[in-house]
Design goal:
Elements (H helix, E strand, L loop, with lengths): L1 E5 L4 H10 L7 E6 L19 E5 L5 H11 L3 E4 L6 H6 L2 H22 L5 E7 L23 H20 L3 E6 L1 E3 L8 H10 L4 E4 L5 E6 H14 L5 E4 L4 E3 H16 L3 H5 L2 E4 L14 H6 L8 H14 L1 H7 L2 H10 L5
Parallel strand pairs: 1-2, 1-4, 2-3, 4-5, 5-6, 6-10, 7-9, 8-12
Antiparallel strand pairs: 9-11
Helix pairs in contact: 1-7, 2-4, 4-5, 6-8, 8-11
């Protein structure tokens, strides 16, 4: 089978390909990525020469380019990771999110429908728990939770989810959808909470925390997410949605303090020295209070559960960032530094 993976040079897509390309020589994986600021071919350097791997630079918002990629590589299935994904960036500039997450998904669906025909192929759409909005102190998101997105990012992902379901119901395109909780792990672009805090703590820089740090997220180790997606691709029911969560609800401020402890241990410093760097910054507009995923469906139907505990996953993640300065150097461009200055330093 020929499997096109959109966004395969980004955080989750790269981990997906690094995990599966060496394991499944019977499949050919096509990495289709625009190579935006958050993508890095260095993240897939280890599989670049594999016989069952190809790369094509592709902007999914360009319908003509999507058609040409389908014509050249003739995929039998598509795993769709490609998306603009940073909430703060969506608040600053929502247009890129509409173009990539909605128009881009539409272009892929259209091409898949035309090429595969009714009942053929597989379109696996990777989405987020943010489409469900915010929880109170209790409750969890399930697959039929009503959509209530709060940001341009989550609204664009909600729109793409609806498009994927519509193409299944209207045109008979075989689709599967997964909505995941907050991913963490190696190769994540360092604008997100965990890599930002890890790297700043290691360098003795301020540790920016939105509001009072009381927002709660359910943390999922990235390779656990990738294994779950592969389970759904191969064993999930066509037309169904599966929620994927890590069963790790933690407040943001507690995440920051855990990272301080791990970095301090690594550097032989007292944890209090790094915790003194915590700097509370102005909260983002519409910041959802709490996310929590009920992953009962995928656990019972497909026999999936996370392999990493919160403790093992966080330790692996923090150590990875401290041990890969060359990768960090590649992605810390001037554009990245400008964004950090604008989004965190200027909001302190």
């Amino acid at each position: 089978m020929r499997i096109m993976v959109t966004g395969g040079a980004g955080f989750i897509g790269a981990n997906f390909l690094n995990l599966l390309v060496p394991r499944h020589g019977e499949h050919h994986f096509i990495n289709a990525d625009k190579l935006t600021y958050a993508a890095n071919l260095g993240s897939v350097a280890g599989i670049a020469e594999a016989e069952n791997y190809s790369f094509v630079q592709l902007d999914i918002a360009d319908a003509k380019a999507v058609a040409e990629a389908f014509e050249e590589y003739k995929p039998d299935a598509l795993v769709h990771f490609a998306a603009e994904s940073h909430v703060d960036r969506s608040i600053e500039g929502p247009r890129a999110f509409i173009e990539s997450n909605i128009i881009g998904t539409f272009n892929l669906l259209e091409e898949a429908r035309k090429r595969w025909g009714k009942g053929n192929g597989l379109f696996h759409h990777v989405s987020t728990d943010e489409v469900y909005g915010s929880l109170g102190d209790t409750g969890m998101f399930v697959e039929d939770t009503r959509y209530d997105p709060s940001s341009p990012y989550s609204a664009s992902k909600a729109s793409s989810d609806h498009l994927v379901r519509a193409y299944h119901r209207t045109y008979g395109l075989p689709v599967k959808i997964t909505n995941c909780s907050n991913n963490y792990g190696p190769l994540q672009f360092p604008e997100k909470l965990i890599p930002v805090i890890t790297l700043n703590a290691a360098e003795g820089k301020p540790l920016p925390v939105y509001g009072e740090g009381l927002n709660v997220r359910d943390w999922l180790y990235v390779t656990d997410h990738c294994e779950a997606i592969w389970k759904v691709v191969n064993e999930g029911r066509v037309g169904d949605t599966y929620n994927i969560g890590g069963n790790n609800e933690v407040r943001n401020i507690d995440v920051v303090k855990i990272i301080c402890k791990l970095v301090a241990q690594r550097q032989g410093k007292p944890t209090s020295e790094l915790e003194s760097l915590i700097t509370y910054v102005k909260d983002r507009p519409g910041h959802d209070l709490r996310y929590a995923i009920d992953a009962t469906k995928i656990e019972t139907e497909l026999n999936w559960s996370p392999a990493e505990t919160f403790e093992t996953g966080f330790r692996k993640t923090v150590h990875w960032y401290l041990e890969h300065p060359e990768w960090i150097g590649q992605v810390r461009s001037g554009e990245y530094r400008n964004w950090i200055e604008k989004n965190y330093t200027n909001r302190a």
